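Q: Entry one of two.
A:
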Amino acid sequence: MNIKAFGSMTKNLQGLFWTAFWLKKLALLLILCCSVDAFADDTAILTKIEQAGSAPKTLSATFRQMKVVKATGSKIHLEGTLYFVAPDKMAQHYTNANEALIINGKQFYMVRSGKKLLFDTDKNPPMRSLRNTLLYCLQGKLRTLAADNDAELTVAEDAKGYTITLTARKKAVRGYQTIVLRYSKTNNLLMTMEMNEFSGNSTIYTMSDYKTNGQIDAAKFNIPK
C-alpha cells in the first residue's frame, strides 16, 4: 500500500469514527429529550390529580370493596358509602356487613367481623401509615405518599383515565407491596384503588356516584364509645 492510499484510508476511517460518534450523541440527546418530556407529562398529571383531590371540602361516594385472601383464595365482597370532610375525616359505612372504618383526625376506628378496634395513630406507626394512605389517595397527594413510604411512582395514561402505581422499594413483613390507583379523566377523582400486601392478600375499592361539597352529617365521623 502506498502512502497516498494509506492516508486516504485513514481519513475515511476517521470520518466514519466521527460520524458514529455524533450519531451516538444525537441518539442520547433524543432519548434525554423524550425522558424530559415524559417527566413533564407525569408531573402535569400528578399536579392535576392533586388539585382535583384538594378542591372539595366534602365528598361522598358509593363504594364496592373486594378482599382477596391468598391462603384460601376466597373473595369477600362488601359495599357501602364513603364520606370525607377535609382535611382528615373519612368514614366507610357498610350496608352489607358488620364492619366500619372511621378516621377522625388522629383517631382510627375499625370494626372487623364484629370486633371493634380503636387506634391513636400518633402512637401506632402502621395504622398511621394506613390512615395517611387512605387520605392521600383520596386527596391525590401521591407524591407525598410515595415519599413517605419510600415507594417508586409511575404514571400511565389512556383515553379514559390515569393509572398511578406505587411500588415499595424495600420488602417488608407488613404493609403494601404495590398500590395501583385509577383516576378519571372526567373529574380527576379516584375511581379504583388496589392495595396489594406483601403477604399476598389484596383489597380493591371501586368508587362511583361522587357528590362534592354537599352537607355531611358530622355524626358520620363519631367514634363510638
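Q: Entry two of two.
A:
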Amino acid sequence: MEMKKMTYCIKPPCSKCPYQLGLVHTLVNPCPQCRENGYQAFEHLQQQTMAGIKRAGSGWH
C-alpha cells in the first residue's frame, strides 16, 4: 500500500476536501464512494479545484 493511501486510512482528508469545504458542488454526494475507493474522489476534486484556481488566476497580470 502506498504511503498516501496508508495516511488516508489513518486520518481521512475530509477536513480539507473541496466538496466538504463547499468549493466543489456535485449532483450526488461523493463521500460514500470516496471512502470506499481509498479517497480517490478527494484527489480528483482537489486537482480539479487547483486547476480552476490556476485558470482563474492566470487572467490577473
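A: Comment on entry two: Residues 40-57 form the longest helix (18 residues). The chain has a mean pLDDT of 80.
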